[in-house]
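All the exercises in this workshop are built on plain-text protein records. Sequence and backbone structure share a record, each on its own labelled line. The structure tokens are whole numbers drawn from a learned vocabulary of backbone shapes. The record below serves as our worked example for the rest of this section.
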Amino acid sequence: MILKYILVLCVFLYLLLLSISSFAQNNLAKATFAGGCFWCMESPFEKMEGVISVVSGYTGGHKEDPSYKEVSAGVTGHMEAVQILYDPSKITFSELLNVFWRQIDPTDPGGQFVDRGSQYGTAIFYHNEEQRILAEKSKEELAKSGIYEKPIVTKSIKSSKFYEAEDYHQDYHKKNPIRYKYYRFNSGRDQYLKKIWKDKMKNESSKNRHQRYKKLSKDELSQKLTPLQYEVTQRNSTERPFVNAYWNNKTDGIYVDIVSGEPLFISLDKYDSGTGWPSFTKPLEPDHIIEVEDRSLLMKRTEVKSKYADSHLGHVFQDGPEPTGLRYCINSAALRFISKKDLEKEGYNEYKNLLK
């Protein structure tokens, strides 16, 4: 009798697992992209959270069950492509599109990089109307971005049967890392992508900084700052030496603008100048520092201000130690210190590796 109940329970659990597996499969989606050599198109997507699998194969042509030799000869109408199985609850098709565009030259009608012929062209094979609309919108936005001088020729094509490539092509970058790296370098793909996207990334970074680090109104400053912080940052006052927060601080971390939070200095460049104020040999982010001539107090000095908040920070003098010979003499009241252990929590994790 007990064996009967155990058998029934096992069958029930087996059917339950099948049902769960079927439900999970039904909630997954496919995306198919052609971007030239499929060896180079697998790894960028495999790294993404929510991607279940990436398979190399052939699609878009007329020949059934084509071989690599046939496709590469350009006689099948097929293109080398990758098909991605992903979980839409964790990653969107738009996010996949963003990665796709950054792997290819969408202005090349004759192939991709060293691989020539229509079999190495670029295309987005959409699986439903929503993907088609998103693909077209993404392409329009890219065309308007000004990144490319030539028109974008990547096509949006309704998906058709996808034929998996031979086993030795799957995960080629893992199975043959040396050959893969040699091919990829000599294809010119990475050199092109670095050139195209370098300025774009720089502009995006600058835009993000402008959005993140803002100058506050007088009312906002009055509410945010202490009287001393306001006097120093807004009225160019100088705090007293040796009785300020950071003159003798030896903890690892970074110093950010008290108003905007823009990163300014790092503990690695801090030293004891004997003046009683925090002193640094150089800025952590030179782009965040503005230097202006200061003729107050009947002398010529160089004032140091923050770029985004326009806060008065202090002055820079040419009597510092090597290698710069500079002394950035900064008011503690203009700074907020973030220790190494708090960088990730505070949103400055990008600087953590500098303090290892």
Observations:
- The radius of gyration is 29 Å.
- Confidence is low (pLDDT under 50) at residues 18-24.
